[in-house]
Design a protein that fits this description.
Blueprint: H1 2-31, H2 41-47, H3 58-68, H4 78-87, H5 90-108
Helix pairs in contact: 1-4, 1-5
Length: about 110
């Protein structure tokens, strides 16, 4: 996970807020269970190599799901995934809380 989180500040700098959220949404779609529309443990395990997470063990994958699962339904929806990715990158969070708020407003129409 460290490799991916280290890339987030660079991605934000290069892509801007909307571009970064767009890329995170693409990452979500790569990891999600197509039938359920959320990231489950099985879909995360099956697709983790697509995002360079193949070195993570089952416990680490479960921990990632648990940490990001804000509504405690056992899976990550798109919003939970995006929030988790930002939380895993302290440098990005320090530099871009405003960027995140703006990008979420643009992507999801949040006020």
């Amino acid at each position: 996970m460290a490799g991916f989180q280290d890339m987030l500040p660079l991605m934000a700098e290069r892509l801007g807020g909307e571009g970064l959220i767009g890329e995170l949404c693409k990452g979500f779609r790569l990891l999600m269970d197509r039938e359920k529309g959320v990231i489950t443990f099985d879909s995360l395990k099956r697709n983790s190599a697509l995002l360079g997470l193949q070195e993570l063990g089952d416990d680490e994958l479960r921990g990632m799901l648990t940490e990001g699962d804000l509504d405690r339904d056992g899976a990550l929806d798109q919003m939970e995934f995006c929030v988790l990715m930002f939380r895993l990158s302290p440098q990005l969070m320090q530099q871009s809380e405003v960027l995140l708020e703006y990008a979420l407003q643009q992507e999801f129409g949040w006020k």
